[in-house]
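Weekly structure sync, notes
Attendees: PL, DS, HV (note-taker this week)

Item 1: Large ribosomal subunit protein mL43
DS walked through the input record. Source organism listed as Hermetia illucens. Sequence as pasted into the shared doc:
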Amino acid sequence: MSNSHLFLKSGFPKAPLQNGLGRYIGQLKRVTLKFCKESGASRGMRDFIERELVDFAKENPGVVVYVKPRRHRTPVLVGEYLNGTREWINCRNFTKEEVTKWLELMRTQSGPSGALRLRKMWHTDVPSIQGPWTPFTLKSPETNLVVFPSEEHSKPLFVEKSATEKLIELFQKQKLEDGDLDKNRAK
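Item 1 (cont.): predicted structure, written out as tokens:
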């Protein structure tokens, strides 16, 4: 195992507010467009702000848009998401169309998709090479073709006798043994 995972950001997996179970909630909550008013590297960002920013803000009322001019700095898109993550995109020498595409990507995703070293609540010194166990690991693949509800699959796998049934069985065994003893004594 290499040590490259030590340099990755670590954290627990976060679900984006159960999106898809009810109505869709856009995960991008704030976007900041930082640019220079004079630099040639910011030309695409300035064109986007002049021509398309108002339309973007009208189409996406759930996203707060900030415009921040900065002198002699590289243009940057900063997106902040509902799960608390931030994403920075360097827009140096981008065209207006490229800025639009990156902003649309930020709007439709639920946070930075960068590598994350997942942390777990458990640890083992000898991890399994077979992968994690699931309830379906040892199931027969024939169950995929069964039409449910099914009589055969509704039965419990192990039918254990109740305590009353066990007592009745023990009593009858004892009764038979006593009957055999009485026959042996009579002989």
